């Protein structure tokens, strides 16, 4: 029978965490290259580590949920939960009246998608308005 000592288990855990962070770095590089390019690699690793800790602190437990949380960071910024424009999302993720952290995350992503789609519609409407107004002036 194989017996692992506590320090061996910790070393394995650190190794798994490091592999997970490396995987997240690759994911961000593939899907959010401009976001990654804005920061040095060590800063990225440190920010990723903090984002994972924050994800865990709101109750997210699966690698998939933590990855989605990191995606939110890439879209909204590392400190999105404390930024005025996205504080609603941080509040939702911490809202324990919704028992499942995974479900809170899903609701937050859906609401963010709705808000981003609305922003695009408003931007397009403004552009049409400006074009029509410019044409009227001529």
Would you kindly provide a written description of the structure presented here, covering whatever features stand out?
This protein is mostly helical. Helices cover 78% and strands 0% of the residues. The chain is built from six helices and no strands. The longest helix is centred in the C-terminal third of the chain and has 37 residues. The chain is elongated and about 80 Å long. The chain starts with 5 loop residues before the first helix and ends with a helix. The mean pLDDT is 90.
Question: Would you spell out the secondary-structure blueprint of this structure?
Answer:
Elements: H1 6-31, H2 33-37, H3 41-57, H4 63-76, H5 87-94, H6 101-137
Helix pairs in contact: 1-3, 3-4, 5-6
Summarize this, please?
The chain is mainly α and 138 residues long. It is built from six helices and no strands.
What is the CA-based Rg, rounded? 20 Å
Q: Count up the helices.
A: 6
Amount of beta strand: under 5%
What is the 3D form?
elongated
Helix content: over 70%
Structural class: mainly alpha
Major β-sheet, in short? none
Number of strands: 0
H/E series, N to C? HHHHHH
Low-pLDDT stretches = none
Q: For the residues shown, what is the average pLDDT?
A: 90
């Amino acid at each position: 029978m194989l017996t692992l000592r506590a320090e061996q288990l910790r070393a394995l855990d650190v190794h798994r965490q490091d592999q997970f962070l490396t995987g997240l770095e690759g994911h961000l590089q593939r899907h959010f290259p401009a976001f990654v390019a804005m920061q040095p690699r060590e800063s990225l690793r440190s920010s990723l580590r903090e984002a994972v800790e924050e994800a865990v602190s709101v109750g997210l437990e699966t690698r998939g949920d933590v990855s989605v949380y990191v995606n939110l960071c890439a879209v909204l910024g590392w400190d999105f939960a404390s930024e005025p424009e996205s504080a609603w999302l941080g509040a939702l993720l911490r809202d324990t009246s919704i028992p499942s952290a995974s479900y809170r995350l899903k609701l937050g992503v859906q609401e963010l998608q709705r808000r981003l789609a609305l922003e695009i519609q408003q931007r397009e409407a403004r552009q049409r308005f400006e074009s029509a107004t410019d044409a009227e002036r001529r």
